[in-house]
Design goal:
By secondary structure, the chain is of the alpha/beta class. Helix content is 45%, strand content 25%. The protein has an eight-stranded mixed barrel, surrounded by five helices. Strands 4-3-7-6-5 form a five-stranded antiparallel beta sheet. Strands 9-10-8-13-14 form a five-stranded mixed beta sheet, sandwiched between helices. The radius of gyration is 30 Å and the shape is globular. The structure holds ligand C2E and magnesium ion (2 copies). The site of ligand C2E has 26 residues, from β16, α12, α13, β18 and β20.
C-alpha cells in the first residue's frame, strides 16, 4: 500500500509519470532482525532449540562441530542424545525446577560426544514463552570448557560443591564417604552418617519466597558447620537435605551411638533456634536419621539409604527429632527391595488389574467410576496401591504402569460404549506427578484416545494438589493441551495439601474431589464440616463440580447433600470391584 504518491510533470504541465512510495522501513527492519538472528544462530557456541516437550527442532553448525551430531542426527531427538550418565536424577530435577521457576538455567554439564568422549560443557538454557505465558521452546547454548585451564578449577568447584551454600555436594560426599569407610576399616573405629531434612521447608519457600528460603539454607549450612568437629563433613544433597558425616567415633558400638546421638541432638537444637532474615523472624526444625558405619559392613549407597529411611521415620513420628536406623527398619527395607524387584515384572507378567468404584449422583444413579490399580501378586495376593505406588514412583516404574492404566481405562470406555448401562459413565484415572512430567504425556493420552476411538469427555484424569503445584507452568500447559482434546480434570484429595486460590484459578479443572478424611470425621469435627461447606462454595465460585469421596454412612451423605455436594463415591455405594463384578453391579443399580 503506497503511503504517498508523487507526480512528475513535464513543462507543459502534463503528468509524465506517477511514482508511488511505500514505507519499507518496517519490512527492512524485520529482515534485518532476521539476518542478525541468523548470524547469531551460527555463532561459535553450540545452539539447540527444542519445542516445549524437549524435542530438538534445530541445531546450528557449532553444535555439529562440538558434538559430532549432524542436524539429521539430532532433530526430533531429545537432548538425552548427549547424556553422559554422569548426572543423577536429582541434578535434572533441580535443573527443571530452576528452569520452570526462573525460565533460565545455567551450569556445567557433562555431555557425551558422538564419538563417545565425555566433555564438560557450560550450558545456558532459556525458556521461550508465548505472549500468553505458555512455554513454546527451550533454547540451549553451550561451549566446551573441558580443555580450558582457567575453567578447570571452576569445573571442580561446580562439580563438587553446592553453589548456594558452598558446602560439598552429593558427589563430594560420596567420595569422602568411600574414603571414610576405608579409614574406618583400618582404624576399627565407627563413623556415622546423619541425614537431615528440614520440616515444612516447602511451605516456607512458598509463603516467604525462594529468596528467603535460600537465605535460610545458607544460615543452616553455617549452623551445621559450627556444630561438628573439624574433619567431619557437612554436605548439601540438594533442596532442604543435608548430610553430616562423622568420622573417628568410638571403637565401641554403644559409645559410638551415644556420640552420634549427641551431635544429632546438638544440631537439632541449633537449627530450632529462631532465624532473623531480612527483618523477618522465622522458625525451622529438622528431622534427622542416623546410621552408623564400621568398615565395609555396608556400602555407600546402603548407608545413605539407611539414614534416609531413619529420617523418614523421624518425620513420621512427629518431626523435629533424631531417629537411628534399627533392625526393624532393616527388615522393612529388605522386604521393600524384594517387592521392588517383583514390581519390575508385574506389568510384563500381567499381574496388574484395574478395579472400578462407582460414583453416583444424589438420586444414587451411576454417573461414573474411578479406576483404581491393584497388584495381584503370585505369593502375596492382592496388594493395595499404597504399598506399591510409592515404590513405583521412586523407581520410575510408574511411567510404564501409568501408561498401561491409561490404555486399559480407554479400552474399557470403548468396551462399555455399546452397553446402555455403562455407555455414559465417566471413567476417572489417577496420574502421578512423574507421569505428568513426562514430555510425551499429552501425546500418550492423545494416542490412547485416538486408537480406542472413545469420546474424550468420558475420560477424567485425577491429579493431586501437590503434584499440580510442583511445576505449575508446565502442568497448566499440558492440562490445557489435554483440555483441548475434550478430557476432564479432577483435583483429587482436595484440601489436604497447601494450595492457594491463585493456583486454583490458573488450572483448567472441572471438578474438586473432597478428600475422604474430611468426610470421615464429619460427625465429631465441626471444622471439617465447615471445610466441606467451604469447598462446595469454592467449587461453585469457580464453576467446578464437587464430588465427595469416602462416603461410608448415610449421615455423611445427608450432611454433604444438605451443603450442596451432589456427587459421591464411597463404600456406602460400593467398594472398588474387579471388572466382572463391577459390570454385574452396574446392571443392578
Ligand atoms: P485416591 O485416588 O484418593 O482413591 C480413593 C481411595 O479411597 C481408594 O483407595 C479407594 O479404595 C478408597 N475408598 C473409596 N471409598 C472409600 C470409603 O468409603 N472409605 C474408605 N476408607 N476408603 C475408600 P485405593 O484403591 O487403595 O487407592 C489409594 C490411592 O492410590 C488412590 O487414592 C490413588 O492416589 C492411588 N492410586 C490408585 N490407583 C492408581 C493409579 O492407577 N495410578 C496412580 N498413580 N495412583 C493410583
Ligand atoms: Mg483418585
Ligand atoms: Mg482421593
Amino acid at each position: 500500500m503506497p503511503i504517498w504518491t508523487a507526480y512528475i510533470k513535464t513543462d507543459n504541465g502534463r503528468h509524465l509519470a506517477r511514482i508511488a512510495f511505500t514505507d519499507i522501513s518496517e519490512r527492512k527492519q524485520a529482515e534485518e532482525t532476521l539476518r542478525i538472528a541468523a548470524i547469531a544462530f551460527e555463532s561459535q557456541e553450540g545452539i539447540m532449540v527444542t519445542d516445549a516437550n524437549g524435542v530438538i527442532q534445530r541445531v546450528n553448525n557449532a553444535f555439529t562441530r562440538l558434538t559430532g551430531y549432524s542436524t539429521e542426527d539430532a532433530v526430533e531427538k531429545t537432548p538425552a542424545l548427549l547424556s553422559s550418565g554422569r548426572h543423577d536424577k536429582h541434578f535434572y530435577q533441580c535443573m527443571w525446577t530452576t528452569l520452570n521457576e526462573q525460565k533460565y538455567w545455567q551450569g556445567e554439564m557433562w555431555n557425551k560426544r558422538k564419538n563417545g568422549k565425555i566433555c564438560a560443557d557450560w550450558l545456558t538454557i532459556t525458556a521461550v514463552a508465548a505472549p500468553n505465558g505458555n512455554i513454546t521452546h527451550y533454547v540451549g547454548t553451550f561451549s566446551d570448557i573441558t580443555s580450558n585451564p582457567e575453567s578447570l578449577a571452576e569445573i571442580h568447584r561446580l562439580a563438587y560443591y553446592d553453589l548456594l551454600t558452598q558446602l560439598p555436594n552429593r558427589r563430594m560426599l560420596l567420595d569422602r564417604l568411600r574414603q571414610a569407610l576405608a579409614a574406618s576399616n583400618r582404624s576399627k573405629h565407627y563413623g556415622a552418617l546423619l541425614f537431615l531434612d528440614l520440616d515444612n521447608f516447602k511451605n516456607l519457600n512458598d509463603t516467604r519466597g525462594h529468596y528467603i528460603g535460600d537465605l535460610l539454607l545458607v544460615e543452616i549450612a553455617h549452623r551445621l558447620n559450627a556444630n561438628v568437629r573439624e574433619g567431619d563433613t557437612v554436605a548439601r544433597l540438594g533442596g532442604d537435605e543435608f548430610v553430616l558425616m562423622l568420622e573417628n567415633l568410638s571403637d565401641n558400638l554403644q559409645e559410638a551411638a551415644i556420640q552420634a546421638d549427641l551431635v544429632g541432638e546438638k544440631v537439632r537444637d541449633a537449627i530450632a533456634l529462631p532465624y532473623r532474615l531480612k527483618g523477618l523472624e522465622l522458625w525451622c526444625t529438622a528431622s534427622i536419621g542416623v546410621s552408623l558405619f564400621y568398615g565395609h559392613e555396608a556400602s555407600v549407597d546402603e548407608l545413605l539409604k539407611y539414614s534416609d529411611f531413619a529420617m523418614y521415620h523421624a518425620k513420621k513420628e512427629g518431626r523435629n527429632s533424631v531417629r537411628f536406623f534399627d533392625p526393624e527398619m532393616q527388615a522393612t527395607l529388605i522386604e521393600r527391595s524384594a517387592l521392588e524387584s517383583d514390581l519390575r515384572h508385574a506389568l510384563g507378567r500381567q499381574q496388574l488389574r484395574l478395579y472400578y468404584q462407582i460414583q453416583v449422583n444424589n438420586e444414587r444413579r451411576a454417573i461414573g467410576a474411578e479406576a483404581l490399580l491393584r497388584w495381584i501378586h503370585p505369593e502375596r495376593g492382592l496388594i493395595l496401591p499404597e504399598q506399591f505406588i510409592p515404590l513405583a514412583e521412586k523407581t520410575g516404574l510408574i511411567v510404564p504402569i501409568g501408561l498401561w492404566v491409561l490404555q486399559t481405562a480407554c479400552a474399557q470406555i470403548r468396551d462399555w460404549s455399546s452397553n446402555p448401562a455403562t455407555s455414559s459413565l465417566q471413567l476417572a484415572l489417577n496420574a502421578s506427578a512423574l507421569e505428568l512430567r513426562q514430555p510425551d504425556f499429552v501425546e500418550h493420552v492423545r494416542q490412547a484416545i485416538f486408537t480406542t476411538g472413545i469420546n474424550p469427555a468420558l475420560l477424567k484424569i485425577e491429579l493431586t494438589e501437590s503434584q499440580l503445584i510442583d511445576n505449575i507452568s508446565d502442568t497448566v500447559a499440558k492440562m490445557n493441551a489435554l483440555k483441548a482434546l475434550g478430557i476432564r480434570f479432577s483435583m483429587d484429595d482436595f484440601g489436604t495439601a497447601y494450595s492457594s486460590i491463585a493456583y486454583l484459578k490458573q488450572l483448567p479443572l472441572d471438578q474438586l474431589k473432597i478428600d475422604q478424611t474430611f468426610i470421615r470425621d464429619l460427625g465429631d469435627n465441626s471444622s471439617n464440616a465447615a471445610l466441606v461447606q467451604a469447598i462446595v462454595l469454592m467449587g461453585r465460585t469457580f464453576g467446578l463440580d464437587v464430588i465427595a469421596e469416602g462416603v461410608e454412612i448415610e449421615a455423611q451423605l445427608e450432611f454433604i447433600n444438605l451443603h450442596g455436594c451432589h456427587a459421591y463415591q464411597g463404600y456406602l455405594f460400593s467398594r472398588p470391584l474387579p471388572l466382572e463384578e463391577f459390570e454385574e453391579f452396574i446392571e443392578r443399580v
